[in-house]
Amino acid sequence: KPSLEHCFKLMLLLLALGGVTMHVPDADVLSSLGALRLDGHFSFHDTSAMARDFGNRCSLLPAAVLHPGSVSDIATTLRHVFSLGERSPLTVAARGHGHSLMGQSQAAGGIVVRMESLRGSDRLQVVHGGMSPFVDAPGGELWINVLHETLKHGLAPKSWTDYLHLTVGGTLSNAGVSGQAFRHGPQVSNVNQLEIVTGRGDVVTCSPEENSDLFYAALGGLGQFGIITKARIALEPAPKMVRWIRVLYSDFASFTEDQEMLIMAENTFDYIEGFVIINRTGILNNWRTSFKPQDPVQASRFQSDGRVLYCLELTKNFNSDEADIMEQEVTALLSRLRYIRSTLFHTDVTYLEFLDRVHTSEVKLRAQGLWEVPHPWLNLLIPRSSIQRFAKEVFGKILKDSNNGPILLYPVNKSKWDNRTSVVIPDEEIFYLVGFLSSAPSLSGHGSVAHAMNLNNQIVEFCEEADIGMKQYLAPYTTQQQWKAHFGARWETFERRKHTYDPLAILAPGQKIFPKAS
Ligand code: FAD
């Protein structure tokens, strides 16, 4: 095994060769980490795997990786880093599954806490609790494992992300949005309690009743206030099956009006999303989905012929003895919609298959080497009052060709979001999540990062110039000034909470909100 000092010198050499300048801790500081009494351990020589993420566009080498064996390891480490004082450059980033887009879970020259070390079915506890069942899950647990465990009890979380190989702490630090959010709110609206290790190294249990300021700070808090080590997640009875439906529109106004009508209706679908299809052939061969309609021949014949089309995606949950009622309800709901009548496609799958749909595509893309490519994604929250203007410019002018990846577009309602959390959303009752989920498999041309970024920049510039009232989700801002503008009137609260829970700005440096003083 190379010595600590050796690793440290090697790291400095590599950084110098790469022309990278950054604050790195000295050898004594690293030795002091190695001397901490832990249930798990630090590693200093295999840090490069922690300098990557799904975005694949940012690589910041940490000095050390903590593989915690317990929550107290995280507390011990943070207490130690805090004790080094404000002159120490050492920072700490929790890493969930590393599915950030621009280095948000990385720590240049700092410590990455590998949260997945603290996961496992023995750490997941499902409590039936009468009318309000819940699961206590470690912050580093993947949502897919939470689902597997809760399904054993006939239960499941209420609110999801489209992809489940993300961690509980990672999505709760952002918001966690999918097609169930219109009914249940985002994932941050479905948590009853958190256990958090603050930037001072204190282990705090918090909820709406107890230490509520920290509770709301951490939800959507971009990892700034503490490391979420446990979350109590609300559950509901899980259905066995799902009727999964797609219908197409050529008219954007009808598409969005129908979406809005559905999210406001009393008895409606269980999941409502939508996506935009630009100049595509074989439009159902979408990478994000394992959707196999019952009439594949008819479905594959349907071509967009250069048109922009809008696909409404819906599900209705059911158990096998409820199939007839489900059919009636679906028929009644569909009869109220204005889609192109020949474009109704549906399939019945298990609840698990539906929720884990993106993973099926991941497996296929991995096999072709197309998963670990750069992902210059852009996620926007657009107020309802601007969505037509936005669509006219973006889908009518800026995006001319089919892009490399899906474009999501669906409405959610603000009343389901708690404004005490740190999440920033537009100030309007209905707003749209619009996700441009591009992959950049080539170095030049249409499949390149440069091409996608050029389009992203045009879209953002348009939103700013036209005063659309847009907020970015998973925002990759790089200066405090940009973050202040993002938070607007809420910046003061965010900053106050930072001073309270992480006064030395040790946590989540990759978000680039509070530079560490040194
Ligand atoms: P990481 O990327 O590892 O971490 C994210 C941030 O949270 C970092 O700043 C990190 O330091 C911090 N963090 C991580 N764990 C903790 C913790 N325990 N406590 C405190 N801070 C922590 N998002 C949606 O809302 N809806 C979607 O439908 C959706 N679909 C996605 C599909 C794919 C294929 C991918 C790659 C991402 C998707 N996301 C979606 C985005 C996802 O929410 C973010 O990538 C998020 O960062 C979660 O990833 P992660 O668990 O790997 O966390």
From TrEMBL:
The keyword Plastid does not apply. Keywords: FAD, Flavoprotein, Oxidoreductase, Signal. Residues 1-22 form the signal peptide. It is an enzyme of class 1 (oxidoreductase). The keyword RNA-binding does not apply. GO terms for molecular function: cytokinin dehydrogenase activity; FAD binding. Its EC number is 1.5.99.12. One of its GO terms (biological process) is cytokinin metabolic process. Residues 58-238 form the FAD-binding PCMH-type domain. It catalyses: N(6)-dimethylallyladenine + A + H2O = 3-methyl-2-butenal + adenine + AH2. Monomer. Belongs to the oxygen-dependent FAD-linked oxidoreductase family. This is cytokinin dehydrogenase.
